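Tokens in:
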């Protein structure tokens, strides 16, 4: 028998009856004499649950809206798709809240004309921060995290959750979640300081609250021309958090043609014009114009390659809410920075 099943409650101080104590609840009522008692002492990690507001029919409507909400999805996906399975799951997420106090010492780069120098700076901050992360493997559902900010929390009632859907138990440790939250808070303090060089950073945490929150998600699986797809709907707000759908062939082809055309225009005509102007200009300005031409050349090829990849591997449309967008021109920025440093060194 687990510890959660063994501890059913405490004896009422008035009548001696057994008082159930749901996890996360501080004040409880005796079911026999109605005496209100305050729960005190070490109770471990408090557990809560986000209430389910979206029913089955509303989840189906959210999927239909998802299938008709993008030109990248096949036009007949919403009309001929058939829902094969729909069920509700309650996934656990670690939630850490704290008042974060930060002191950052370093230097800020200040530019004046063509010269620049570093000035010493000291930045202080005090802000409330929230970190949340999955407490189990959620790769099957495609949802890495949910936004718990502003969501109402209710006392954890395992029996009620099991009656409505599948309840997953946490597999990651509370200490690992605490370490991840601390690293996230420290990184936020460092980013907020916005210093070019950092020599020292001190961070203190106040009013730290950690809990385990069970979040409701609707999982819908549907078939389209013999292929299976999955959509995950937020059980509280009704938003689609993750979804896969058949892509539109016409949309992929149009993206390929336009991407190749625009990339060729930028890489060939743009770079040729820049190199020509650089050759005609004075030696003082030729370095900067050469830099623009090289950036146009690399950027155009990157755009063409991105369009080809989207067409070649874009048979399925995939959506993930709040997913970090891939920086298509990351290599362009890197090359631009390296060439800029080289040009500055040559002009010295």
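Residues out:
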């Amino acid at each position: 028998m687990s510890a959660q099943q063994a501890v059913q409650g405490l004896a009422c101080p008035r009548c001696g009856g057994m008082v159930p104590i749901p996890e996360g609840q501080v004040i409880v009522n005796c079911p026999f004499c109605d005496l209100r008692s305050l729960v005190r002492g070490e109770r471990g990690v408090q557990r809560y649950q986000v209430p389910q507001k979206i029913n089955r029919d509303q989840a189906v409507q959210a999927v239909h809206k998802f299938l008709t909400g993008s030109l990248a999805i096949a036009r007949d996906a919403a009309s001929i798709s058939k829902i094969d399975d729909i069920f509700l799951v309650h996934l656990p997420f670690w939630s850490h809240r704290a008042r974060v106090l930060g002191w950052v010492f370093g230097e800020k780069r200040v530019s004046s004309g063509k010269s620049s120098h570093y000035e010493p700076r000291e930045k202080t901050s005090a802000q409330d921060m929230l970190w949340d992360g999955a407490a189990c493997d959620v790769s099957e559902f495609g949802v890495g995290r949910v936004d718990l900010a502003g969501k109402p929390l209710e006392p954890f009632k395992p029996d009620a959750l099991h009656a409505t859907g599948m309840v997953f138990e946490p597999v990651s440790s509370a200490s690992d979640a605490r370490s991840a939250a601390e690293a996230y808070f420290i990184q936020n303090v460092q980013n907020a300081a916005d210093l070019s060089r950092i020599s020292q950073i001190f961070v203190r945490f106040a009013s730290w609250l950690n809990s385990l929150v069970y979040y409701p998600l609707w999982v819908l699986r549907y078939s389209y021309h013999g292929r299976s797809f999955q959509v995950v709907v937020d059980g509280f707000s009704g938003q689609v958090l993750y979804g896969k759908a058949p892509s539109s062939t016409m949309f992929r082809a149009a993206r390929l043609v336009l991407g190749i055309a625009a990339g060729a225009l930028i890489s060939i005509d743009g770079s040729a014009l820049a190199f020509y102007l650089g050759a005609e200009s004075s030696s003082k300005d030729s370095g900067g114009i050469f830099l623009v031409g090289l950036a146009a050349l690399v950027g155009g090829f990157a755009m063409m390659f991105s369009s080809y990849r989207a067409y070649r591997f874009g048979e399925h449309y995939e959506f993930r809410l709040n997913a970090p967008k891939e920086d298509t021109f990351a290599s362009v920025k890197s090359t631009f920075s390296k060439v800029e440093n080289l040009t500055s060194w040559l002009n010295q």
